[in-house]
Design goal:
284 residues; alpha+beta; three-stranded antiparallel β-sheet; metal-binding; zinc-finger
Length: 284
């Protein structure tokens, strides 16, 4: 008979399942339209930025704050979960807020659900840009997610990163384990695997879902549906050859210019000598 599970083990399994569900929900969040990442225009300086409790540029307080979890600007009190009881029909402004999120730096309303859940479900917990490595505190723009590798990107680097994201960190499309052409690509590791090494032994896979990467666990993508490219190296001898050819061409041009100037000076001297001889002949 199997051993009976203790209460502590049951709690640990429930917590593990809850954390896994939160991670899957966080990966499926529409980051562009999420209330913690919506565009906001400052009342004082008029600059556009991400939804924040205070302006990133002038540090001024906004007149109508937006809740970063439910997205509302006024509380009607219909749900009855308000931690701050208000007799009025609805409240807005500073009477509606209850806390500031440490991750997205935006206001959270005084509703019990928003305050107790938002910190665990905030999609901007790991909001460091993969290109410039700036966190949310170091720039005032919005956060975007790459459509290929799902890495976080700032507003300045999103287009440059996605334009060069479909490039492998190798010189060919071969599998690193068996040196055969691979058809399953991990867009995070930038490595292509064959059908045999894309699966790990002893691991059960769900039907109808993409295989996870053996290295990082990111879902693999079919290489035939992507416009993948390989990395090209510019070797030192090629650069030296081009520089030598450029130097030789510049030297040849300078030599030809010097020859032209010498010929012109010689022609001028001979012309002066001829003129002097003609003048002497006329005087004689």
């Amino acid at each position: 008979m199997p051993k009976k599970k203790t209460g502590q083990r049951k709690k640990a399994e429930k917590a593990r399942a809850r954390q896994k569900l939160m991670r899957t929900q966080r990966s499926n969040i529409d980051l562009i339209n999420h209330p913690s990442n919506v565009a906001m225009e400052c009342v004082n300086c008029g600059r556009r930025q991400k939804n924040r409790a205070f302006c990133y540029f002038c540090q001024s307080l906004q007149r109508l704050p937006i809740c970063c979890h439910c997205g509302k600007q006024k509380c009607t009190g219909k749900h009855g979960d308000c931690l701050v009881k208000h007799r009025a029909a609805h409240v807005c402004g500073m009477a509606m807020v209850g806390a500031i999120c440490d991750f997205c730096e935006a206001w959270v309303c005084h509703g019990l659900n928003c305050i107790s859940v938002h910190a665990c479900e905030c999609p901007l917990q790991d909001s460091t840009c993969i290109e410039c490595e700036r966190s949310l505190e170091e720039h005032g723009g919005r956060i975007f997610s790459c459509a290929y590798c799902q890495h976080m990107l700032c507003e300045d680097d999103q287009f440059e990163h996605q334009a060069s994201c479909q490039r492998l960190e190798a010189e060919s499309y071969k599998c690193p384990s068996c040196n055969r052409l691979g058809s399953n690509t991990c867009l995070r590791c930038k490595v292509t695997f064959c059908d045999e090494h894309a699966k790990r032994k002893g691991v059960k896979y769900d039907k109808g879902k993409a295989f996870p990467c053996p290295k990082c666990g990111h879902p693999l993508t079919d290489s035939y549906n992507l416009s993948m490219s390989t990395r090209n190296y510019e070797y030192g001898r090629q650069r030296l050859a081009t520089s030598d050819s450029e130097d030789s061409s510049s030297e040849a041009e300078s030599d030809s210019e010097n020859d032209d100037t010498e010929e012109e000076s010689e022609l001028e001297e001979s012309h002066e000598v001829v003129c002097d001889m003609e003048q002497l002949h006329l005087n004689a």
